UniProtKB/TrEMBL annotation:
Residues 416-573 form the Aerobactin siderophore biosynthesis IucA/IucC-like C-terminal domain. Transmembrane segments: none annotated. It comes from Flammeovirga agarivorans. It holds the Pfam family IucA_IucC. GO terms for biological process: siderophore biosynthetic process. GO terms for molecular function: acid-amino acid ligase activity. Pathway: Siderophore biosynthesis. Residues 145-394 form the Aerobactin siderophore biosynthesis IucA/IucC N-terminal domain. It comes from the Bacteria. Gene3D superfamilies: 1.10.510.40, 3.30.310.280, 6.10.250.3370. InterPro entries: Aerobactin_biosyn_IucA/IucC_N, IucA/IucC-like_C, LucA/IucC-like. This is IucA/IucC family siderophore biosynthesis protein.
Length: 602
C-alpha cells in the first residue's frame, strides 16, 4: 500500500467514522422528513424539545431523537440524542444501514439502490477525511483567503444526503482532485483538429488571445513546435486544457482512434497550478489569480449526474453570455447593488465521430469540452476579499459557525449584518426575476460574496448559462438563447425564490442564526420580508408581477431535491427541460406570510 493510501486509511479511524455517521443520520432524518418521505411521531417532551421516533420498513428498528420543528418544516435535531434500538438493545448508528432499513419509505427503485449506496459510502468517506484533516477553525477562516475557505467547506449541498459521490475516483484520485484534499495540480494540454474541434468566444476574444493569456506566448509557441515535430500543421489545431483524470480514464481510451490518427494530440503539461472548487470540475488558477477559471468535462458520477460537458452546448455558451450581459448591462439598479455575473467567455468542444449518432444527450458525447470563465479577482477593490456563499452554512469540526465569526469581526450586530447580506444577495435576484423574467440557480456554491471588513457588499453569480432560466421570450433573441426560455405558471415561477432561496438556503441560515447568533428564526424571516417589501416599494411599476408571483402567499409548492436523486441518481433532471423534471409533494407554509402588509422593527 502506498503512503497516500496509508494516510487516507488513517483518516477512517473509528471515532471520526462514528461522528460522521451520526451527523449524516441526523441529516437523513431531517431532510427526508422535510420532503415527507419519513413521518416522525412525537412520543414525548423534554424541556423545549419534542421526543420523536421513526420505525424502519420492517418495524424491527426504532430511531428515537429529540427535535424542534422550525419554519419550512425544518427539523432541528439534537445529534447526541439519536438512539437506534432493536427491541431493548441499542445499535450502532450507521448511515448505510439506515438507507437499507428505510429503502421502501424512501421509495428508492431497486435498480438505483446499489448506485445510491455507493454514493452514500463515498460521501461518508469524504466527510470522514474532512473531519479528520480539515481542522481550520471558523475564526481562522473568517480571516482567511478565498481558496482557504473553499478548500475547508465541509457540508456540500445542504439538502442532498448523497452529495459527494464522485463515483470513478479511486483513493489517490481523491487525494489529488477532491477540493478538500487536493494541494492543486497542473492541467494537461491537448490539440484538437479543427475538423472535430470547435472554439467559440465572445466578440473581441480570439483563440490566440485566450492562449496568450492562459499559457503565454512562449508555451504557445512550444506547443506549436510540438505539432511541427510530428509533421503536423499547428494552424490546423486548437489547443485546450483537460483535467488529468479525464485524459487518463476516458479520453486516452475512448478517443484512441483520434489519437492514433493524430486528430487529438497530447502537447504536455501546462505551467500553472489549479485548485479544484466545490463544483469539482471547475478549477481555479492559483498561479495567476486573474486568469480564467477552467471548467472541463469530468466523467465521474456525482449528485445525480455524470459530470460531463457537452461540446454542443458549449458552442452557444459565449453567445448566451454576451446576450445576458448586454440585456442587463444598462440596469442601474443592478449596478447600484454591485451585482456582477462572471462571464463564460470562451469554450471549446471536441466531438467523437463514432458516438455522434447517439445524440447530444449521450454521456459519450460529453467527454471532451472546456469552458473559460472570468475570475472575480480582477473586479476587486482595495481591502476587499472573496468567499463562497456556501461558507455562511459552515460549521467547523469543533461546532463553531463561520457566519458568527464574520459577524463578530465586522463589529455590526447580527441583524445589521444580515440586512447588508440580504441587500447584496436577495435584492438582485428579486430584480432579475421581476424586472427581467430571469432566474439563476442561486445556491451557496454558485454565489461568490465580495466581502469588505467581514461584511458582504455584493455578489458574483457564476454558472450563468448552464443553469439560467428565462420565463418570457425577449425580442431579437439569438437562437442559442431561446433554449433558456421556460413557459410555466406564475406559481411555479415563484419557486425561483421560494425553493432555491428560502427552502434550499435560508432554511439553514435561520437555524445557524438561532443556534449561534441569538437571532430567532422569526426575526430572521422578518428581515427577509422587510428586504422584499423595500424592493417592492422602490418598484411600484412591477405591482402586477408582485401579485402574480406573490412572495407573501400563505404557502407554496414543496419541491423536493432528494426525491429527484432517489428516483434517478444517474440523470435526476433533464437539463433541456428542468421545470418539468421537478418533484412536487404538496404545499408548505410560507415563513414570511405572517409579515404580509407589515414591516419589521430592527
Amino acid at each position: 500500500m502506498t503512503s497516500v493510501n496509508n494516510s487516507f486509511m488513517l483518516s477512517l479511524e473509528e471515532k471520526v467514522w462514528h461522528k460522521v455517521n451520526q451527523l449524516y443520520i441526523k441529516k437523513a432524518i431531517s431532510e427526508f422528513s422535510h420532503e415527507r418521505l419519513l413521518s416522525p411521531v412525537r412520543i414525548g417532551f423534554e424541556n423545549d424539545w419534542g421526543v420523536y421516533q421513526i420505525l424502519s420498513d420492517s418495524s424491527e428498528y426504532t430511531y428515537i431523537f429529540k427535535a424542534q420543528e422550525m419554519q419550512l418544516d425544518h427539523w432541528k435535531i439534537d445529534v447526541p440524542s439519536i438512539v437506534k434500538n432493536k427491541g431493548d438493545e441499542q445499535q450502532e448508528l450507521l448511515l448505510m444501514d439506515f438507507v437499507l432499513e428505510f429503502k421502501e419509505q424512501l421509495q428508492i427503485p431497486e435498480s438505483m439502490l446499489e448506485t445510491y449506496l455507493e454514493e452514500i459510502s463515498s460521501t461518508l468517506y469524504g466527510a470522514t477525511y474532512k473531519y479528520s484533516q480539515n481542522t481550520t477553525t471558523a475564526d481562522e477562516l473568517s480571516k482567511g483567503d478565498f481558496q482557504l475557505i473553499e478548500k475547508n467547506m465541509i457540508e456540500g449541498h445542504p439538502c442532498f444526503l448523497a452529495n459527494n459521490g464522485r463515483i470513478g475516483f479511486d483513493v489517490e484520485d481523491f487525494s489529488k482532485y477532491a477540493p478538500e484534499a487536493s494541494s492543486g495540480f497542473k492541467m494537461l494540454w491537448l490539440a484538437g483538429h479543427k475538423t472535430l474541434a470547435t472554439f467559440s468566444s465572445i466578440e473581441g476574444l480570439s483563440f490566440e488571445k485566450v492562449m496568450h493569456q492562459e499559457i503565454g506566448s512562449l508555451q504557445f509557441e512550444q506547443f506549436r513546435d510540438e505539432l511541427k515535430s510530428k509533421n503536423l500543421n499547428p494552424d490546423d489545431y486548437f489547443f485546450f486544457p483537460m483535467h488529468p483524470w479525464q485524459w487518463n480514464n476516458k479520453l486516452s481510451i475512448i478517443f484512441s482512434s483520434d489519437i492514433a490518427s493524430k486528430q487529438l494530440v497530447v502537447l504536455g503539461e501546462g505551467k500553472d497550478k489549479y485548485q479544484p472548487q466545490q463544483s469539482i470540475r471547475t478549477l481555479y488558477n492559483t498561479t495567476s489569480t486573474d486568469k480564467y477559471y477552467v471548467k472541463t468535462a469530468l466523467s465521474i458520477q456525482n449528485m445525480g449526474f455524470l459530470r460531463g460537458l457537452s461540446p454542443y452546448y458549449m458552442k452557444g455558451t459565449p453567445t448566451i453570455t454576451t446576450w445576458i450581459s448586454n440585456f442587463l448591462k444598462d440596469d442601474e439598479y443592478l449596478k447600484s447593488k454591485g451585482f456582477k455575473m462572471l462571464g463564460e467567455v470562451a469554450t471549446l468542444g471536441y466531438k467523437n465521430q463514432y458516438f455522434e449518432k447517439f445524440g447530444s444527450k449521450s454521456a459519450y458525447n460529453k467527454m471532451c469540452a472546456v469552458l473559460w470563465r472570468e475570475s472575480p479577482h480582477q473586479f476587486l477593490e482595495e481591502n476587499q476579499s472573496l468567499s463562497t456563499m456556501a461558507a455562511l452554512l459552515h460549521i467547523d469540526t469543533e461546532g463553531n459557525s463561520l457566519l458568527k465569526a464574520w459577524i463578530d469581526r465586522s463589529e455590526l450586530s447580527a441583524c445589521e449584518w444580515i440586512i447588508k447580506y440580504l441587500d447584496a444577495y436577495l435584492t438582485p435576484l428579486l430584480h432579475c426575476f421581476y424586472q427581467h423574467d430571469l432566474a439563476f440557480m442561486p445556491h451557496g456554491e454558485n454565489l461568490i460574496l465580495r466581502m469588505e471588513n467581514s461584511v458582504p457588499v455584493s455578489v458574483f453569480m457564476k454558472d450563468i448559462t448552464e443553469e439560467v432560466v428565462l420565463y418570457e421570450p425577449k425580442e431579437n433573441m439569438p437562437e442559442e438563447v431561446s433554449r433558456l426560455v421556460v413557459k410555466t405558471t406564475d406559481e411555479v415561477k415563484s419557486l425561483t425564490i421560494f425553493t432555491d432561496v428560502f427552502d434550499c438556503f435560508f432554511r439553514f441560515v435561520a437555524q445557524i442564526l438561532d443556534e449561534h447568533c441569538d437571532v430567532s428564526e422569526e426575526h430572521f424571516w422578518g428581515l427577509v420580508a422587510q428586504c422584499i417589501y423595500q424592493y417592492q416599494q422602490e418598484h411600484p411599476a412591477l405591482e402586477e408581477k408582485f401579485k402574480a408571483s406573490d412572495l407573501f402567499a400563505d404557502d407554496f409548492i414543496l419541491s423536493c431535491l432528494n426525491r429527484l436523486q432517489l428516483q434517478n441518481n444517474k440523470q435526476m433532471v433533464d437539463l433541456s427541460d428542468p421545470v418539468n423534471s421537478l418533484q412536487f409533494i404538496g404545499r408548505i407554509k410560507n415563513p414570511i406570510a405572517q409579515f404580509k402588509m407589515s414591516t419589521v422593527e430592527v
